[in-house]
Amino acid sequence: MKVGIIGDEPAGPVLAKAWAGAGHELVGVYVESPAAIERVEALLPDIPIAPMAAVAEAAELVVLAVPNDDAELTCAGLADLGLFGPRKIVVHLSPHRGYGILADAAQLGAIPIAMHPLMHFTGTSLDLAVMQNATFVVTTPETYRPIAQALVIELGAEPIELSEPQRAAYAEAYEVATGFSSLVVQQAMSILDEANVELPARLIGPIVRSAVDDALAGPVTPIDPEDAK
Predict the structure, then answer these.
(1) Structure pTM?
(2) Which of 10, 34, 37, 144 could disulfide-pair with 121, CB 3.0 to 4.6 Å?
(3) Distance between start and end Cα atoms, the chain
(4) What is the DSSP annotation of 64-91?
(5) What is the pLDDT of residues 95-109, one digit of tens each?
(6) What is 2-163's CATH topology?
(7) 158-161 and 135-139: which strand pairing?
(8) Span 5-22, mean pLDDT?
């Protein structure tokens, strides 16, 4: 397929690079910020940086690598221009919403896919190796699940499917896990830093990873809302 990337998020050029390695053709990238332009020039030196509408029109697989809150608006704007149709696949990367935010594209016949990579992107070639062991959460209408799975597998990653109704719970769990873990780790490192301990991350890292592995290996225990407070 012809692949086009829209947006400044670091995941965009990395996914494009990986799909190119799987045999797809990159037709263009739309980015604005200096940092994003630098990432594209480093990872995809032969791929043109083009206007958003031109990228969406030329591509068969359009990836919206935009901030979470912008995906729906970006999709709607491109749909208003008549740039989506039955020969298009539209992907967004937000953890917070399902494929419903791509409804404007779907109404024109495009295939909507919510695809959230469970990894941190640096926007460099190092991400390509990390992606080989990564998991991608995918949500799309049942008819198109084989397409979504194939796109993830071509990246070297593993797809896990969630239904559209499950996305709200996933978004909440994602926010709890990322926000809470970050707060706790920062607090632990701060304690060591105040005691003038050098390289607190090196001490805390193995403890955190071990605690997370133990928690994930155990049974799921329902949490009383009062206890959570």
Answers:
(1) 0.85
(2) 10
(3) 49
(4) E-S-GGGHHHHHHHHHHTT---TT-EEE
(5) 999 999 999 999 999
(6) Rossmann fold (3.40.50)
(7) parallel
(8) 96
Give the model confidence (pLDDT) of 16-62 as tens digits.
999 999 999 999 999 999 999 999 999 999 999 999 999 999 999 99
Helices 200-217, 167-194: axis angle to 10 degrees equals 140
Residue 55's identity, in one-letter code, is V
Q: In what order do the strands lie in the sheet with 25-30?
A: 25-30, 2-6, 61-64, 89-92, 111-117, 135-139, 158-161
The first and second tokens of residue 227, run together, are 């206890």
Q: Residue 18 in contact with residue 155, Cβ under 8 Å?
A: yes
Q: Which of 108, 132, 105 is nearest to 119 (CA)?
A: 132
Nearest to 91 by CA among 161, 204, 12: 12
- For residue 69, give the nearest of 33, 46, 93 by alpha carbon: 93
Coil, helix or strand at residue 161: strand
Cβ-based neighbours of 76, under 8 Å, separated by 6 or more: 104
Q: Where are the domains of the chain?
A: 2-163, 168-218
